[in-house]
Design a protein that fits this description.
Layout: E1 8-11, H1 22-35, E2 41-44, H2 56-64, E3 68-73, H3 78-89, E4 98-100, H4 106-111, E5 116-117, H5 126-134, H6 140-156, H7 162-169, H8 190-210, E6 215-216, E7 221-222
Parallel strand pairs: 1-2, 2-3, 3-4, 4-5
Antiparallel strand pairs: 6-7
Helix pairs in contact: 2-3, 6-8
Length: about 240
């Protein structure tokens, strides 16, 4: 398996029941380690079927095993994020990497020596997230880009992952539907689609400001085209 994948990511909530404590979780995690040889593992605090966030002490234990190389954190709170990063960094020589899934606290986690981002808006404008991860210490652009990403997340997360499929489907030539992993996914109404179009325009504006190519995933080439339904409508006569 190690020759086929870089690592296998484990859902945190699958290693213990909702009412079981972290002692049980670590016992089950150790059993998993014993059964998987030298396969590198990752952790994801997936909110379904129940949301289990690991405390700093448990993450430190994971780092000490030298087997976990990735952690996708979903606590969405600055205090626990700082505690977790400090605990992991105290181990010293460990391959463990801390990735924040919450974009509102992304710059904060990077400033506290987090390793990067693993959240849903990377499906919308990966180049902007990548820029912030690389240039989070720059003053004006980093602060204002963080502000944009935080506010834009309200559009991104509404009816996700349908919103992501719809957003990507607006790129000319991609031709994908909004069918997704969720059973009976909700439909987007006109207002919601217009908000996604506005997000397209805002993302393009940021790419231009930062000197980044905005790639059309259908062609792999830079594109300045944005959907504009309202501009195509005829104004009512008076």
């Amino acid at each position: 398996m190690g020759a086929i994948v870089d690592a296998v990511v484990v859902l945190v909530n699958q290693l213990a029941g909702q009412q079981e404590d972290d002692t049980v979780w670590k016992v089950n995690a150790q059993r998993l380690l014993d059964l998987t040889g030298t396969v590198p593992l990752g952790l994801y605090e997936c909110p379904e079927p129940y949301h289990r966030c690991l405390p700093a002490s448990t993450l430190q234990w994971c780092a000490e095993t030298q087997r976990f190389i990735f952690h996708k954190d979903t606590c969405c709170k600055t205090g626990p994020i700082l505690e977790k990063i400090k605990a992991v960094r105290s181990v010293g020589n460990t391959p463990f990497s801390f990735y924040n899934a919450n974009v509102a606290t992304l710059r904060y986690s990077l400033q506290k020596s987090g390793n990067g981002f693993s959240g849903i808006c990377a499906n919308f404008y990966p180049q902007l997230v990548s820029y912030l991860c690389k240039h989070f210490e720059s003053s004006v652009d980093a602060v204002e880009l963080q502000n944009f990403l935080s506010v834009a997340e309200n559009v991104v997360m509404f009816k996700y992952p349908v919103s992501a499929k719809a957003f990507l489907g607006m790129f000319e030539g991609l031709g994908i539907s909004t069918r997704c992993r969720k059973p009976n996914p909700p439909e987007l109404n006109e207002e919601e689609m217009l908000k996604l179009e506005a997000l397209h325009a805002q993302a393009l504006g940021w790419c231009k400001r930062l000197g980044l190519p905005r790639l059309n995933p259908a062609t792999g080439e830079a594109s300045d085209a944005v959907p504009d339904t309202l501009n195509g409508l005829t104004a009512p006569s008076r």
